[in-house]
């Protein structure tokens, strides 16, 4: 698979990034890939205002992966509590499973390790997503034992289809 080119998102990219992230996790389109959360959550996966804030704030980068000028993947990396934070990771559903996600994760780790000189990268993953947690564990992330509650009632993060959602905190030493 051809390596993507990477660039930082601008506020002009907000609509395209929201569309990509939503198509990777929510609704019928997301079922074309393996990252779907369609059985767990309905609604939007990413609030445009939250994305805009992530793009504009210091110590935060929204990475875009492109092929021939087309957006194919994205991720958010930021400095949080002395470590890198990795989130908003999305690969176009029809391109999942071919190594593109590993390349995006590698670029985010490079930013945290080389540009910011951070010792570790952390992320949160829904505990119900055992397949996704296993993906990250194969890439060196480990469960910390900590969990965070799902923001029930805040539709900016979706409408839960079940009442037992929570996030596992994963960490990788860089």
UniProtKB/TrEMBL annotation:
Presence of keyword Transferase: yes
Superkingdom of origin? Bacteria
Task: Report keywords, A-Z.
Answer: Acyltransferase, Transferase
Q: Which residues form the N-acetyltransferase domain?
A: 4-174
Q: Does the keyword Oxidoreductase apply?
A: no
Q: How is this protein named in the record?
A: N-acetyltransferase
Q: Which organism is it from?
A: Barrientosiimonas endolithica
């Amino acid at each position: 698979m051809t390596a993507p080119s990477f660039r930082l998102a601008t506020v002009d990219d907000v609509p395209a990034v929201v569309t990509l992230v939503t198509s990777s996790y929510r609704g019928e389109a997301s079922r074309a890939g393996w990252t779907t959360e369609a059985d767990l959550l309905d609604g939007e996966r990413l609030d445009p205002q939250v994305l805009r804030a992530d793009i504009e704030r210091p110590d935060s980068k929204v990475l875009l992966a492109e092929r021939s000028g087309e957006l194919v993947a994205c991720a958010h990396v930021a400095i949080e509590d002395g470590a890198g934070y990795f989130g908003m990771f999305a690969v176009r559903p029809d391109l999942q499973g071919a190594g593109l996600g590993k390349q995006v994760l590698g670029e985010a780790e490079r930013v945290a390790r080389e540009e910011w000189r951070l010792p570790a990268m952390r992320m949160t993953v829904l505990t119900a997503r055992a397949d996704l947690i296993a993906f990250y564990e194969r890439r060196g992330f480990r469960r910390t034992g900590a969990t965070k509650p799902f923001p029930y009632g805040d539709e900016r993060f979706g409408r839960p289809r079940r009442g037992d959602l929570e996030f596992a905190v994963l960490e990788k030493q860089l």
